[in-house]
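cron nightly-structures :: item 1 of 1
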Amino acid sequence: MENDKGELVDLYVPRKCSATNRIIKAKDHGSVQISIAKVDENGRATGENQVYALCGFIRAMG
């Protein structure tokens, strides 16, 4: 939900699994979120990162 200024005002915004596009529920205690830094051509971190969220279902598959 957004207010008049366009800001998100929801108390809880669920994440989606990057592999299956499933919603990661609040009770999914097997889920993880991994941030991988982006690097330039010299191998130095640029300050940006790519976030991957994996649900417990994917982790249980192995």
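cron nightly-structures :: done
The mean pLDDT is 92.
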